[in-house]
Structure formats: C-alpha cells, structure tokens
Write a structure and sequence with these properties.
Layout (H helix, E strand, L loop, with lengths): L2 H16 L1 H7 L4 H22 L4 H16 L11 H11 L6 H14 L8 H23 L5 H21 L1 H6 L7 H6 L4 H7 L3 H23 L8 H21 L12 H15 L3
Helix pairs in contact: 1-2, 1-3, 1-5, 2-13, 3-4, 3-5, 3-6, 3-7, 4-5, 4-6, 6-7, 7-8, 8-12, 8-13, 12-13, 13-14
Length: 287
C-alpha cells in the first residue's frame, strides 16, 4: 500500500465513522471516484469539527490556508498546517478533477458564522444555512459524480445537499435543542404556534407535527426533483446517488414511526438499507 493509498484509507475511516449512510452508498462507486468522495468528505468533516468539536478557530484558518495552497499550486509540495493526510488526498484529487474551491470557502464562512449562532428569523435564512453547510458539499462533489458538469448538474447537487441537511435538522430537533440550538425559523414557529422548549418538556403535539411536516414536505419535494433529474450525473454515479438519497429520505419515516420524538435519534436499519440496495440494483442492473 502506497502512502497515498494510506491517506485515502484514513479519509475513508472518517467517512465510515461519521456517516454510515453515505459510506454504505458511495463506497460502491468505482475506485477513483470513491477515493475522491472520501477525501472531500474528510475535508468537509474537519471544517465542521474545527468549531463544533475542537472549538479551534486557528485550526479552521489552517484548513482554509491549506485549501488555498492546493487551489493556487496543485502540483507543488506543501507543508500543510491542518491535517496532512487529508490535504494530501485532496491535493491528489485536485490534480485530476476541476474542484469547486469557492464552495469550500462558502462552507468555511458558514462555519465561522455558526460560532455565534442565533435563531433564523425566516425560512430564507434557514435555507441559506442549509446551502452553506451542505449545498456547498454537493457543489464540491459535482465534478466527481458527473462526466460533464453543467449549471444544471451543480444546481441538482446543491439542492440534494440542502435537502439532506434539512432532513438532518428534522431528525435532530431534540439533540439540537439540548445543545441550545433551534433551526426552525422564528417566522414558522410563530405561524404554527410552536415552542420547542415546551414540546421537549411536555411532549409532541399537533402543532409541532404540522410544523415538522411542513419542513418534511419541502425536503421530500426537493428529493423528488433531484430524482427526476438524476441523469445529469454519470451513469456510474446515478444509482449510488439515488441509494444515498433514498436512505436519507427514509429517516423521515423513521421519525414518524417514532412519533416525532425529541428524545431519541432515529436511524435506518441495515435491513432497510439492504432492501433499498436490492431495489435500486434491480432498477439499474449495475451496482
């Protein structure tokens, strides 16, 4: 195993640890594509964790400087400051793919702002956040998952990322509240007459369910729109993207089956993932 192979293996471990659903799906890509996904996921995870886990703004700055070095001089040797193994893997990817570096910087800017979290006044602010933390990831992955990236390809990948982030929010309402965060907008909370603290303390009510389903309908519509345009991605990537997205959309039904609980994180069981895999395998005849 070469040093570069070890770098990619390190990135893969990060992906498997933090997103079993993504790993389950994207590990089915051809080797070069899945390695690129591992590297990009690992970079994005380190960006997220720099503040959420480490509380280290200097580390986030180092990540940004390392990415800037790769963008400016992709073929030169660099003394990376953040995580050398991840950055070497990203540099290798950047030498072969047209990486959307600005999307990395947009993600970093969102993480900067997230240090001083305040509730969103409107849904527009919420959806802007979903773009910043997840739509950006879709943009960065676009050259990996398509043969000829176009404006439409970037748009579809961005919407998929935003949809998956909204699903994360719908899954983690209780956990986020425990961390003193409420992502639903004040505008929508007022409209549906919902107080998250009250729901957390006293249990789910019809007002909360209606609010939750309002946002779930948005995520489900975006999912359907993405599936309708799945052919913008490469033949190899189409079934993988559909598998990842369908596993994620299943999370919404898991929340429903758990009676919209705020006190337990739901997940999609392995047998359901396997069932989806076989359905999509039959549809595409190529996974």
């Amino acid at each position: 195993m070469t040093m570069m192979d070890m770098n990619f293996k390190y990135c893969h471990k990060i992906m498997k640890k933090h997103s079993k659903s993504f790993s389950y799906a994207f590990d089915l890509l051809p080797e070069d594509q899945r390695k690129a996904v591992w590297a990009i996921y690992a970079v994005c995870r380190k960006i997220d964790d720099s503040i959420d886990v480490y509380g280290d703004i200097q580390f986030l700055n180092q990540i940004k400087e390392d990415i800037q070095s790769i963008e400016k001089y992709p073929y030169e040797y660099h003394h990376f400051q953040s995580d050398r193994r991840i950055m070497m893997a990203l540099q290798h990817v950047a030498q072969h793919k047209n990486i959307a570096f600005q999307s990395f910087y947009n993600l970093i800017d969102t993480v900067y702002k997230d240090q001083h979290f305040t509730m969103f006044e409107t849904d527009a602010e919420l959806f802007g956040y979903c773009y910043g933390v997840a739509g950006t990831v879709g943009e960065v992955l676009t050259p990996i998952l398509s043969d000829h990236e176009t404006h439409q390809t970037y748009d579809v990948a961005r919407r998929l990322g935003e949809s998956l982030q909204l699903i994360n929010i719908l899954r983690d309402v209780g956990e986020d509240f425990e961390n003193e965060r409420i992502y639903f907008s004040k505008q929508r909370l007022k409209q549906y007459e919902v107080d998250i603290a009250e729901v957390y303390q006293n249990g789910v009510n019809n007002h909360y369910i209606d609010l939750w389903e309002y946002y779930a309908a948005i995520a489900e519509k975006d999912f359907r729109d993405v599936m309708d345009q799945i052919k913008v991605f490469s033949i190899e990537a189409q079934p993988i993207i559909e598998l990842a997205a369908r596993i994620y959309i299943e999370i919404l039904d898991e929340v429903r089956q758990a009676n919209y609980t705020l006190h337990e994180r739901v997940f999609v069981e392995k047998r359901k993932k396997a069932k989806l895999f076989h359905e999509i395998n039959s549809k595409y005849h190529r996974i």
